[in-house]
Amino acid sequence: MKLQLAIDLEDIDGAIRLIDKTKDYVDIFEYGTPLVINFGLEGLAKVRQAFPDITLLADLKIMDVASYEVNQAYQYGADITTILAAAEDQSIKDAVKAARDANKQLLVDMIGIHDIAARAQAIDAMGPDYIGTHTGYDLQALGETPFETFNTIKQAVKHTKTAVAGGIKVDTAAQIIEAGPDLLIVGGGISTVDNPTQAARKIKEMMPK
Ligand SMILES: O=C([C@H](O)CO)[C@H](O)[C@H](O)COP(=O)(O)O
């Protein structure tokens, strides 16, 4: 099981400071969608330049022009990028091919999908690296969590690694770790607490090796 730190609410210098503070405990660093919006792929390249050896995911949440956009993420330093499960099947297949050709990885984000089991099964057959359950900030604000939908994905997916994201904190991590995701994605639960190093260490120590 791997721990991914989603870096969303920072500028590039803040992202670099956060990586410095947590890099002993985090397996994958996410250049979050708000950073993509605010600083583009140039910002991603700066993070990559500062840390040549980390595993870096660019959360592009691609919907179309998939081969081009996936390749742009890799060109600017990402090892992994993301496409939305709501995209056309053709876009997801193109993204998977682009990832395979570049020898990089792709995560399909299920945010906004309601027929979770059927869509997860269809995407499983397309061959991405990860399928992720994701309760976005707008539904977290209404009290929703990704725990139940993660179990549906875990049942539905046979070949692809599973990921889970959405409001996971130090005190709720154990519950979702128990459910056995391959990738646990935590943003604010690490980045907005007083001691991000300690939060990352605590979550990492709960996870099986
Ligand atoms: O992908 C995310 C969200 O859509 C904003 O871009 C977050 O990175 C993801 O939800 C994880 O962050 P937390 O919910 O704060 O753990």
Automatic annotation (TrEMBL):
Top-rank taxon: Bacteria
Catalysed reaction equations from the record: D-ribulose 5-phosphate + formaldehyde = D-arabino-hex-3-ulose 6-phosphate
SUPFAM superfamilies named among the record's database cross-references: Ribulose-phoshate binding barrel
Record's keyword terms, sorted: Carbohydrate metabolism, Lyase, One-carbon metabolism
PANTHER family: 3-KETO-L-GULONATE-6-PHOSPHATE DECARBOXYLASE SGBH-RELATED (PTHR35039)
Entry keyword annotation includes Lyase: yes
Every Orotidine 5'-phosphate decarboxylase domain range: 2-203
This enzyme's EC code(s): 4.1.2.43
Species classification: Bacteria, Bacillati, Bacillota, Bacilli, Lactobacillales
Pathway annotation: One-carbon metabolism; formaldehyde assimilation via RuMP pathway; D-fructose 6-phosphate from D-ribulose 5-phosphate and formaldehyde: step 1/2
Protein name: 3-hexulose-6-phosphate synthase
Gene: hxlA
Protein family membership: Belongs to the HPS/KGPDC family. HPS subfamily.
Residues passing through the membrane, by range: none
EC top class, as a word: lyase
